[in-house]
Design a protein that fits this description.
Radius of gyration of chain A: 17 Å
Number of helices of chain A: 12
Shape of chain A: globular
Largest sheet of chain A: 9 strands, mixed
Strand order of the largest sheet of chain A: 2-1-3-4-5-6-7-8-9
Distance between the termini of chain A: 13 Å
Helix content of chain A: 40-55%
Oligomer: homotrimer
Chain lengths: 266, 266, 266
């Protein structure tokens, strides 16, 4: 755990990895712009005719189930297996898991058929995916308490992934190691797609830290959190905050990220 | 008609209803962010496998035909019927009706098969949907004249819905009562999706005023209009206006909405 | 070549042509807003049931293969043929051609079956489409050198289109005439969709200059370039730049465009 998020950011900006994203319609522009701002090269492609070829050139694959349909699931599975074959890390965002059976089953199917490196979701989504709903009441509150750390740890074990649970404090765990990231701003919750952006950025960092998924996710969440802190300063509301967030992601320096990232063991 | 738009806004912010939107690709991010800014929780889902389950948890359903295709129509019909069964109000945005036979027939089919509470469109769209094209020349001009009020009234009767016709002055009618909303700014016409945003906001207010669709639509249009007035102040152009619109929707207080909403009988 | 870009812009703002765009999910909102800001009326429609009827009312058709799938290809071909029959110019953006066989073959198929007036892409895309990959190394660098002019000329000849190759300097060629456009700002490369926006604007100008595609493309690229120069002034980063770009496109006057457009023979 001696990694520095700043060093990962420097590598990301130098290598400019292609980040293949099969994501939802709502946030495609936003995750593409966030990927560019942090230093990656986004590509969106979902046709079964091309996803395997496209992912073969990518440094990471991001799968996001926010606006699912049957052909997209097929594309996600094809792309995921091709990413596994190419040893490109796969990051899964289980948007809305627990809200419908279709989403829950699709996320589980992806986890069954694809070797997913990192799952990034909010507490409710990660709990639903890990089958912890029954044990959880008031998922909204979890993020504020130490139980979100426990959730990340348990989900990591049950799902055999690195689990990144975002909330007021974010937790990333591979069971053995759990990291807390205490950066960010409540304004993130006032714009749609901030979770999806955090997943896309996790893909960017995973592309340059494929063998250190805990640190990749922690670095990504710290980078977004620090950028959000800067974007929220004097922002009159979520629209201006949203526009500025790309400014501050773009302007974020490796030195500043190392200095301000609030990452600790949990 | 003793409702206060401010009280509806307060209820919206307290209850945070889930607003299920099956809408067009162009505006998904925008309607989601507007929904969040006013106080609702947006969810976009269009798969036939999940729309019925998703809408069962929603306070309202918004159907928008801006970028139609056959599978989406099927999803809209399934979701609409499920919303009816759950007694969640359905708001329809007939984007581009009259421009192609496909759009006109689809909108009519939705009206036939689903109990739509509110139709929100511009004068040309509402006229085409109500079969009033032959009686209308220069639809662009209608919004500025009292004939838009007549259009809203006639369409409400013919379509058996509350009709909300937006333009320089907006008119909302259930035949018996017709309300004029004289808020807004011409800059709204310079961004794509402002109509779709008004429909999404109508869904938000309908979720907390399911039994008062005229006041729900009037409150939503007043809220957007007041927010647009604030966003347009000193805005150098539509890009800045657009970003600020989410700031001003977010900052809009119930008191300010009551004070500034310019709603009258028409 | 006596055209004035300012005069074309004035015509565009007076006639407000409908620009039918079958484009990718990532940029739909952005190209629609850019189309509005410059003076056109955007419409997005991709259903095979309506594309022919929709394009029959349009001044130009923009095809963009950024997020392809089989049904969209069918729609593009139908719309393209209908645009040809209606004598509306067709502009093609071969996003990502060369990255996958599927994209390359689809772009070629569109060129085979549709009479495309203008192809707008970056150097790598245009080179791949024209079968010039083998002769090219380091496509990123091409834009900065005179070889991009040669690429535009050669591609125009091989593809029998007007080729618009964008980069640090843009080149537009119909083989006989080649124009260099030296406007713009590096910040354009920091936002997703700036290429797609340039294609949409090319469609707008082509709608009012259907018989002068070289000047239409040159005018569009100059307009975007000048607007980008204004938007970049004091912009703290790509998010603010992006929002302002719609302000500056909207505010661009014909006089200013004529004065500042840096178009020369190449």
């Amino acid at each position: 755990m001696s990694e520095s998020p700043g060093r990962a950011l420097r590598d990301l900006r130098e290598r400019k990895p292609l980040i293949h994203q099969i994501t939802n319609y709502v946030v495609m522009n936003e995750t593409a712009n966030a990927t560019l701002a942090i230093g990656g090269l986004p590509v969106m492609a979902h046709a079964i005719e091309e996803v395997e070829e496209m992912v073969s050139a990518a440094g990471a694959l991001v799968l996001n189930i926010g606006t699912l349909s049957a052909p997209w699931i097929e594309a996600m599975l094809l792309a995921g297996k091709a990413a596994n074959a190419a040893k490109a890390p796969v990051v899964l965002d289980p948007v809305g898991v627990g809200a419908t059976t279709f989403r829950t089953e699709t996320a589980k199917r992806i986890l069954d058929e694809v070797d997913v490196a990192i799952v990034r979701g909010n507490a409710a989504e990660v709990a639903a995916l890990a089958g912890l709903e029954a044990e959880i009441r008031g998922v909204e509150a979890i993020g504020a308490t130490s139980s979100a750390a426990e959730l990340a740890r348990t989900a990591a074990g049950r799902l055999a992934v690195v689990a990144a649970v975002t909330g007021p404090v974010d937790y990333v765990s591979n069971v053995e190691h759990t990291r807390a990231i205490a950066n960010g701003d409540p304004m993130l919750a006032a714009i749609t797609g901030s979770g999806c952006i955090s997943t896309a950025l996790t893909g960017c960092f995973a592309a340059v830290r494929p063998d250190a998924p805990v640190e990749a996710a922690a670095s990504a969440l710290a980078a977004l959190g620090v950028a959000a802190e800067d974007a929220a300063r004097d922002a009159p509301g979520p629209g201006t905050f949203h526009a500025r967030l790309y400014d501050t992601l773009y302007a974020l320096s490796p030195e500043s990220l190392d200095e301000r990232a609030n990452i600790s063991d949990a």
